[in-house]
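Ticket #4471: structure output looks truncated?

Reporter: J.K.
Steps to reproduce: submitted the chain below (105 residues) through the standard prediction queue, then opened the result file.
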Amino acid sequence: MSKPPRPSAELQLREKSADARNSWLDQMWREYHHDLLGAGMSPEEAARNVERNREQLFVDGEPVEGQFIFDVLDGDQVVGSLWLGTSRFGVRDVAARRCGRRRRT
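Returned output as attached by the reporter:
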């Protein structure tokens, strides 16, 4: 079995397009809801938590000031996503996700 390719020494960030961001957020909110259920929240509590966060962090589908969502690029290939949340006190939150690998059939 061969080892997976290693990323280059220089990764780059590119702001996600609105379509890519919305698609990524749909999946991220579903996974967050699932994680909240796994942490013991009821389905109703988890749904309220997700909705409250959506309302606080996005207005009309756009991130509020201090929220940045990027594609992580290795060359021209998207290898992950980065959500950086800031506040007047500095960086508030960083969430990163590595992209799944596609297998050729």
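Triage note (M.O.): checked the attachment and the full token line is present. Residues 101-105 have pLDDT under 50 and may be disordered.
Status: closed, working as intended.
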